[in-house]
Specification:
By secondary structure, the chain is α+β, with helices and mostly antiparallel strands. The protein has helices spanning about 10-25, 30-35, 35-40, 80-85, 85-100, 130-135, 145-160, and strands at about 50-55, 70-75, 105-110.
Length: about 160
Amino acid sequence: MSYPRKGAKQISELANGLIDPVLARRAGINTALLGSWSEIAGEDFADCTRPEKIAWARGGGDDGSFRPGVLTIACEGARALFLTHAQGELIQRINSFFGFAAVHQIRIVQKPVSNLARRSRTPQPLKGEAARKLEGMMEGIEGDKLRQAIQRLGTAVMGKRGR
């Protein structure tokens, strides 16, 4: 069994220590909420939503008590309608995450959220007629490097859908 060295800290602890004050000041949220968002939102909304900020009420209630804030959530397209219908349940999940009634309302903003899967930088090789056409176009090219570059370009251009 190994024990951590004295004074050693995980990078995540250091990063959260630096990022949390900025997020709290600018957006009213912390990295714990962002990191746990997929569990809070559930599988229906984890991939199409992202918490943007919590607008806390200025001052307190009439008696100086805490007043819950408004959570702004970015949501993609038509999924915002479904999120609107499920916002009561989502508010309960958020408040249970915080351990107190931190949010009383959700404001939904439609904008792109998901990180699109990065495409492979190497396109699929051409087949059939397209491959023969590209070979015919490259007949007069003698330099190997130039030939390879043009073949990559031709494969990318001719391999696009709809062409």
